[in-house]
Amino acid sequence: MSAAAVAVWLGTVVTILSRSHADRNVYPSAGVLFVHVLEREHFKGEFPPYPKSGDASNDPITFNTNLMGYPDRPGWLRYIQRTPYSDGVLYGSPTAEHVGKPTVIEITAYNRRTFETARHNLVINIMATEEFPLPYQAEFYIKNMNVEEMLASEVLGDFLGAVKNVWQPERLNAINITSALDRGGRVPLPINDLKEGVYVMVGADVPFSSCLREVKDPHNLQLCSQEMEPPISCDKKFRAQFHIDWCKISMVNINNVAPVYVSRPDPGTGILPEFGEYKPPSESLKSRDYFSDFVVTLAVPAAVALVVLVILGYIMCCRREGVEKRNMQTPDIQLVHHSSIQKSTKELRSMSKNREISWPLSTLPVFNPVSGEVVPPIHPDNYETTSMPLMQTQANLQNQITIPQQRPSGKWYS
Fold it and tell me: What is the pTM of this model?
């Protein structure tokens, strides 16, 4: 092997070793909030620097976290990162069933400028505690905080200090933190610096203080039902930094909660029992006659449909009462009205088909309005009506009757 090949191989090995780090171990306690920050500065040294010396290294870096051998994280562990220029945060609350089971989380960092990756392993060793679980637990809803802001150690410490000042317990721990979006909340509008809101659950070893019990007062419950903020005496101890929605606070004494045990069936080994080799059917199968199936499928429904058709035809065609019986049961006045309407309808229809016939006598005046004499038709029988305008004037009506008018006595000047 040449010296150049050896140098390239050693350089490759050194690069791989420089990017592989020893597993990092953490030891959270069951029933206590676990927070682990994925710092971008910790991964920047594994990516190549900026091409120009002196430039600030501010590469966009995102993280992907998953349980080793699985595509996602454990159910109790959450992850959040707002932007590629902010740190990522792993947080959650392990339970007693995870005690003694090391959880290996694969953390993959992506450099969005160079498209290179770096991978670390985080080993979470969950420890059992004598204080778990704390019997008295209260969950607060903080309206002016996002989950990543609340996970900061300083902010969370200030909140626990305010709760301890109100509650006065000997032991106080943060149990869990949940974003309001995970509880069905809506994304706030980007105005007035609105926040998503966060739920913080804390546990203590002493009963709830009188201030916290004020929430259960009937008057305050009525105000909450009217979507009004109840007056809580200890709200001023939180108001300087935390805006708490006292209508959404929940308090539970787990000593009074009856445990619910769900029996689960034995999942088994997941391997199907042995049935031997597959044996296909032999080629000496007898042919099947489908004529009877055809008769049952088509002939029987057709016969039923024919019988129904015959019955309906008999009812509709052979059971009619007839026009004569209908007329006998109808009053004469209705028959006269019907006959006149029918006759007029036929006359109008015949007129619309042929306009060369004379006008119907029913449309002409019968008597002179002055003398009372019978008036002859307006036009003779040989008058051509096709050229007759629809709106006739006095000049068109040659045979129009002129009604004489009486003139008052006196002189008339023309």
Answer: 0.57
